Amino acid sequence: MKKKLVALLMSAVMASALLAGCGTAKDAETEQETVEDAAETETEAGSEDADAAAEDANAEAESEESNESNESADAQAGEAVVLKCVCDLTPHSEILNAAADLLSEKGIELDIVSTTWDATWNDMLVDGEIDFAYFMHVPAMESIEEEMGATLYSMGGIHVEPYACFSDKYASKDELPENAVIAIPNDSSNEYRALKVLEAEGFIKLNPDMTAIDASVNQIDEYIIPIEIVEMDQANIIPSAADFDAYFVNVNRALEADIDTTAYLMREGEDSEYANIITVTEANKDNEAIKTLVSVLQSDEVKKFIEENFNGAVIPAK
Questions:
Q1: Which segments show compositional bias classed as Acidic residues (predicted)?
Q2: How many domains are there within the chain?
């Protein structure tokens, strides 16, 4: 009897142990599955976070590229330099306009403030209201410096307009009558040119010490051929041309007045040193845009335009 009781007790204990063992295995399995599920969830969450971070980085990069593109466009727009100037209508403004596309390629635009000359042009240049002037030659520049106490600079010669004498009455200088009345400009530099032509053509003999600064009829030492010279403002010469037997003017003014510039009585030689220049003040003598402007105006393309459009009345500067 005792032996049966002992056997029953041992069976119960073993069954209990067996049941306990099964529960532990199941618990362990469940715990393992839970850990794996958590790890998988964490991995998925980490992947999603990484994807989100990558998307944010791409968006930021695209934004930076867009900003850089906009900044580049703004920079390019900001590269255009506007230069303000005054110049004679013909041929100066025509030459500048012909060079507009070439200048645009260099990032330069021109604002031509005026093409009708008056004495305020000199003030505008000296006072800095414009960046450059394109209507004078070196002797004229030096004369303005003397008159205004200013310091000006030539950035380079662009074209030459041989100074000429025209007549509404006579076809050649040999037809001029004795004591012919000839009008010449009263600004010293252009008067110098007119007097030098008259001397070269045998009408007068000048004081050898005369300069472009002090040129006037008072510098005439001798009248070889009797003539009467009238000094007057150049702007008034062509309007009153009928009052004279002959008159001297800049070729550009003759072109503006539709005068046949090939029908001159006498004029400077083709080697005239009176090239029309780009003139600036101290403030712009080192201006890179001005230097580029001069380079373009002295280019073969612009020289070709000058040679083909003014019938020899205007020639490129050497």
A1: 30-68
A2: 2
* 157 shares its domain with 284: yes
The Cα 303–Cα 73 span in angstroms is 34
- Give residue 256's domain range: 164-267
- Same structural domain, 249 and 183: yes
Asked if 225 and 203 count as a contact pair (C-beta separation under 8 A), the reply is yes
Q: Exposed, middle or buried, 15 (CB in 10 Å: 0-12/13-18/19+)? A: exposed
∠ Cα 91 95 101 (to 5°): 160
The values of phi and psi at residue 62, to 5°, are -65, -40
Sheet (strand 152-160) strand order:
108-114, 81-87, 132-136, 275-281, 152-160, 315-316
* Residue at 222 is within a domain: yes
Please answer whether residues 201 and 152 qualify as being in contact, where contact means their C-beta atoms are separated by less than 8 angstroms.
no
pLDDT digits (tens, 9 = 90+) for 219-271: 999 999 999 999 999 999 999 999 999 999 988 889 889 999 999 999 987 66
Written as six digits, the tokens of 142 are 């030096």
Give residue for tokens 């090239």: 275
- Rounded Cα–Cα distance for residues 253 and 261 (Å): 10
Residue among 276, 273, 255 nearest 264 (CA) = 255
Amino acid at 298: Q
Alpha carbon separation from 254 to 86, 158, 249 (Å, rounded): 19, 19, 7
38 within a domain of the structure (yes/no): no
As a whole number of angstroms, the distance between CA 275 and CA 292 comes to 19
How far apart, in whole angstroms, are the C-alpha atoms of residue 183 and residue 232?
A: 7
Query: Do the bridges between strand 180-185 and strand 246-249 make them parallel or antiparallel, or are there none, so unpaired?
Result: parallel
pTM assigned to the model: 0.62
